[in-house]
Design goal:
heterodimer, A: 23 helices, 2 strands, about 70% helix, B: mainly alpha, 6 helices
Chain lengths: ~500, ~160
């Protein structure tokens, strides 16, 4: 399967209809808001809104959802720079130098360089997505159920081993996600399981309730505990960076795009991982690394570029293999499935207009976000200082509305609340959340492909080791687990992924 | 809050034991699943696998933490006031959900938002009232009427 200009132009013609432009704009606005506001991240933002978009055609709905995701990557930097509160975990390295710049009265150039770097990286990685995704999809056409099973297993293994905490806790988190997804009916046979006689449980636990619970509700509980309040806002002057600043950041923007894009293709390499890698790389390459942490403008450009490149790169495995690399991507995958679209190579064959319209809309969305973020940055910063006591009940209201609207049963809302508790304790006790979320979304596909594989092989599990591609994925799964075990035995808890809604 | 669970080590031991119990519960529930062994993937296989994984990982976590000689890392549990704050907020959410069917989504959400904002920020009584009314009106007109979501209208008003 090759890239075709015709398809891309067709995608642009669909993305440029006024309805889709409006949804992309709304998505960009909501995304920036989600990024700006602490307490709600892109995964829960998308999960809450997903059920509310069922009145939209699939293309418009996914255009809006995708815009929320990459919009959040733009918004996260604002609070990190202005008030030293990263809206997302991926903005933590941005705060290191961004806030130092703000303290020196250079918040304007820092915010501008964050927006410009996000735009450059977002656009360059979109070009990567445009040419890379069809190639990968062409490769994935040769996949059968054993390859898909092995691929998803590899994805989960990588997420566990990269989850930055103890491997054992990652395994437990994944098992809890699978357990939640197993409740209810078997997807192929329809047999009920683990329902304990409850009628409500026969329909299963909806993954949106799980995601909103573990991310939004638990985050609110943590903030109520910490008694989060409003923060004061410094004035923003001199928005444009100087030419010298831009020149100094050009290399950082390009390098962070490469780092963000290529690492972002791997499951588990969420923006919160790649932003630290890009920041660290710039610091190592700098002639005067001592400036980093004291207001170096490249320290803002690099993580912001990596952030956006990673979020775009995640669409490559999502569209071509149906493999989410991060919780937000898992929610988007769930969104596609809700609309009856099966991500993977067949998406490019059966729904080319849909997939190219979404890709084209991302080019447009990036321009929209640059325009929204540069002149309106002061407004976004002001929104960020909405007191948490006002924000928290509104987020809970949206969460209840979103989860209730999935199937219009209150049971889903109770499930959300229960998973809020589970998420709160998991965070307190240092369990990573990403494996739980990914497993709960991937479980059905994992189970279906396992059943189909065993049907093909007449029950022999050797089918996963006799086909070269699935064998390669199985070996990679094993290596990633062994790598995680090795890290644990050496006593190294990788500092990478701080657990977050991303 | 959690009594003796004041360090990461003790929390992991307690958490591990809890997971062992959960694993046992899943294994018992899985043993009751009906279905034939004639299928290529018998219906009990995956639940058994997940239950066993939880049990084994839970046991390993508890044992590893029990035998750990590392420095004790204190866990930051909420103090008494924070527990009360969280509890009141959660009770408010529970009451909100319980009231959705009898008094309708709009009214219950309005009351919830007004109460919660007032509780968390006593000085913001007007913000609480205005936010509550706005949420109620928005959920009725925007989500109910405009987006056509079939939100409960309240059995006490419409039955």
């Amino acid at each position: 399967m090759d890239f075709s200009w015709d398809y891309l132009l067709q995608g642009f013609s669909i993305a440029l209809t006024w309805q889709n432009l409006v949804w992309a704009l709304i998505g960009s606005l909501i995304g920036t808001l989600v990024g700006v506001l602490p307490g709600i991240g892109p995964s829960s933002g998308i999960a809450i809104l997903l059920p509310l978009t069922t009145f939209l055609p699939p293309t418009s709905a996914i255009i809006m959802m995708a815009a929320i995701y990459y919009g959040a990557m733009y918004g996260g930097s604002t609070t990190a720079i202005v008030v030293n509160i990263p809206g997302e975990a991926s903005s933590v390295p941005t705060a290191l130098d961004g806030y130092e710049m703000a303290k020196k009265g250079d918040a304007g150039p820092a915010l501008a360089i964050a927006a410009i770097s996000s735009f450059v990286a977002g656009t360059l990685s979109l070009i990567g997505l445009t040419f890379f995704a069809p190639l990968c999809a062409g490769f994935a056409l040769s996949f059968g159920p054993p390859e898909y099973f092995a691929l998803m297993l590899m994805g989960l293994s990588l997420v566990i081993s990269l989850s930055g905490r103890a491997l054992l806790k990652g395994m437990i988190s994944m098992a809890l996600g699978l357990l939640a997804a197993l409740i209810g009916q078997n997807p192929l046979t329809g047999a009920t399981r683990l329902t304990f006689g409850s009628i409500e449980l026969i329909a299963g636990v909806n993954f949106i309730s799980v995601i909103v619970g573990v991310f939004a509700i638990s985050e609110i509980m943590l903030n109520i505990e910490a008694q989060a309040e409003a923060v004061s806002l410094a004035g923003i002057r001199n928005l444009m960076p100087s030419l010298a600043d831009l020149k100094r950041c050009t290399g950082a923007m390009l390098r962070s795009t490469g780092v963000g894009f290529f690492l972002g293709l791997l499951p588990g390499c969420a923006p919160s991982v790649t932003t630290f890698v890009a920041y660290d790389l710039e610091k190592r390459l700098a002639k005067d690394p001592d400036r980093f942490g004291k207001g170096a403008i490249e320290g803002v450009a690099a993580p912001e570029g990596a952030n956006n490149a990673t979020s775009t790169a995640g669409f490559v495995p999502l569209f071509s293999f149906g493999l989410p690399t991060a919780p937000s991507m898992a929610v988007l995958l769930g969104g596609l499935m809700m609309y009856g679209l099966q991500p993977g190579p067949m998406l490019f064959q059966n729904n080319p207009q849909f997939v190219w319209a979404v890709i084209a809309s991302m080019y447009i969305g990036n321009v929209m976000l640059l325009v929204l973020n540069l002149p309106m940055v002061g407004l976004w910063a002001r929104i960020a200082v909405v007191p948490f006591p006002v924000l928290a009940p509104i987020i809970v209201f949206c969460s209840v509305l979103g989860t209730y609207s999935i199937r219009f049963i209150l049971f889903d809302v109770w499930v959300m609340l229960i998973f809020g508790f589970i998420g709160y304790f998991m965070r307190k006790l240092g369990f990573p959340i990403a494996p739980l979320v990914l497993a709960s979304v991937l479980a059905q596909m994992l189970e279906t492909s396992l059943q189909q594989s065993l049907l093909i092989s007449q029950g022999s599990p050797l089918v996963f080791f006799t086909r070269p591609i699935s064998l390669a994925f199985m070996v990679l799964s094993l290596i990633s687990i062994l790598w995680g075990l090795w890290g644990q035995m050496k006593g190294k808890e990788r500092v990478f992924v701080e657990e977050a809604d991303e | 809050m959690a009594g003796d669970v004041k360090t990461q080590r003790s929390a992991d031991v307690v958490g591990g034991i809890f997971l062992v119990l959960l694993g046992v519960l899943v294994l018992i529930a899985a043993s009751q699943i009906k279905g034939g062994m004639e299928e290529r993937l018998p219906p009990r296989t995956l639940p058994y696998t997940v239950g066993a994984t939880i049990l084994v990982c839970g046991a390993l976590l508890a044992l590893k933490s029990w035998r750990s000689t590392n420095i004790e890392v204190p866990l930051r549990w909420p103090d008494r006031f924070a527990i009360i704050r969280i509890a009141v907020c959660l009770v408010a959410v529970v009451v909100f959900i319980l009231l959705i069917t009898p008094i309708g989504f709009s009214l219950s959400s309005g009351l919830y938002i007004a109460f919660s904002i007032w509780y968390l920020r006593r000085s913001a009584i007007w913000t609480a009232l205005i936010s509550g009314i706005t949420a109620g009106v928005l959920s009725y007109y925007v989500f109910g009427e405009l987006l056509g979501l079939s939100l409960p209208m309240g059995t006490i008003f419409f039955d």
